[in-house]
Amino acid sequence: MSGAGENNMPHPDEGLIHAWLDGELDAAEAARVEALVQSDAEWGAAAAEARGLLAASSRIVGALDRVPANVIPQAQPVRRAGRQWMWRAAAALVLVAGSAVVLQKESPESPESTMLQVAPPAAKEQTAELAKKVTEPSPAPAKSKSDSPQKELDAVKKQNEISRDKDVAALADANATANAAAAGSINRLATPAAPPTAAGGAAPARIAAQRAAADKAEAKVAAIVSCFEQRVPTDSAKRIIRLGAAALDDSIRLERLALRGDTLAAVHSRLIAVRVPCP
Amino acid sequence: MHDVERLFREYHAMLVRYLTRRLGDRDWAEEVAQETFVRALRQESIVNERSWLFAVANNLVRDEARKTTRQRRHLELMAAEERDREQESEQESEQGSEEPPELTLARAQETADARRALETLAERDRQALLMKEEGLNYDEIADVLGIEKNSVGTTLSRARRRLAETYEALQDERRRREQHAAS
User: Fold this and answer.
1) Residue in A139, A134, A156 with CA at minimum distance from that of residue A87
2) Residue-wise pLDDT tens digits, A239-252
3) Shortest CA distance to B94 belongs to which of A265, A272, A277?
4) What is the widest separation between alpha-carbon atoms in chain B?
5) Chain A residues with beta carbon closer than 8 angstroms to that of B132
């Protein structure tokens, strides 16, 4: 290190003092600097200031660490999309399969191999589509794991109440339609030899049976939806993040920050916090 | 071939922290750190592991910064504690988190000021400062930055002074604004 070897140092060498405080000088140089700091007021003041700068800079750098993990949302948008797709597909399968199970229970005489094929294709597609909508809570990502199903269920209900209720009702209708159609098909499969006139005579009973099947299917679908909701993590998947005013404008535009949550707080008409899904 | 598992164990957390501080983006930092260790896998031998890892990470950041197509913004985020079940109510949601909003906001502002102050530093000064905070010695910092060891003390003193003074100025400015708004 240069500077410490000179006998007369009109001005303290700030870099040398920092190196000394950092313990980067060899023993001889460190001893010289130490002597200067103790004997020369200017050097002493410079050393005191350097100590303050070291402490301050460490504290300031430490403040940068207040960006905990799991608060920057959508770390991997591609993977998230994949996971959501899987959730949706799984949900649709569960719902369709659930309906089929109901049908199986309602019509034990029907051939098992036809369970998933008896519903008209259009009705099944409608069911799957609505299932996708229902299991796709718009502001809540269905991705992270949580061990608090009831908590998650509550959160889901809050966030998706309106749209979900509407969709669930539509889904129930669609399932009822599909199940009724399926039940009709099953009945036809079970009684292939029945003449048209006989079918006309048994219509009220069949309609009643179909309605009963539809009601049970609806109840089953509702139960499945509820069960699925419990798998949808929202409480742990939603966090409140606070935004520095300076970063706010940028953050709103930030593609990785899904500002789909609720506005939580504002100061002087400026948004300072939002709810966002966690990665 | 060196022991990458050991390298990862010893340096990953340090590298991610360094990169997070430097970039202000934890995800980006994780990505860069991961790529750094991938490159370490391909490396036949590494003489000074810590210097090598930080140098590679710095190069990756520099290369990434050149890719203008990837738009990144430095966010200052402050996470509140996870709400408990009762705080799911809308009233609780409006209030924010368990922590008093004023305190949370103050901390977020400190973080924002720290970030802004850090960004006023020259790139080399910023790297030197952050690497020193991670415990790299002057030899290692000089190695990563390609400068003389004798220059590291001067670089650090300049960086520390600039950081502290800028941060203090930002805090003063914020206090003045708040006083003005309150009056």
Assistant:
1) A134
2) 455 555 444 444 44
3) A265
4) 66
5) 22
pLDDT band at B28 (very low <50, low <70, confident <90, very high): confident
Q: Which residues contact A7 (CB under 8 A, 6 or more apart)?
A: none
Instruction: Select the highest-mean-pLDDT range: A93-102, A114-123, A164-173, B32-41.
Output: B32-41
Amino acid at B77: L
Pick from B31, B34, B75, B137 the residue to mutate for testing the A interface (most A CBs within 10 Å).
B75
CA dihedral B6, B9, B15, B16 (to 10 degrees): 140
A264 near B CB under 8 A: yes
Give me the residues paired with residue A241 across strands: A274, B79
The SS3 call for residue A90 is: helix
Written as six digits, the tokens of A179 are 């199940």
Contacts of B24 in chain A (CB under 8 A): 64, 67
> How large is the ipTM?
0.76
The C-alpha angle A149, A155, A159, rounded to 5 degrees, equals 145
Please give the model's pTM, rounded to 2 decimal places.
0.48
DSSP A252-269: HH-TTS---S-EEEEETT
Band (A256; pLDDT cuts 50, 70, 90): very low
**Mutate which of A54, A57, A70 to test chain B, going by most B C-beta atoms within 10 A?**
A57
> For residue A4, is pLDDT > 60?
no
Q: Do A254 and B150 touch (CB under 8 A)?
A: no
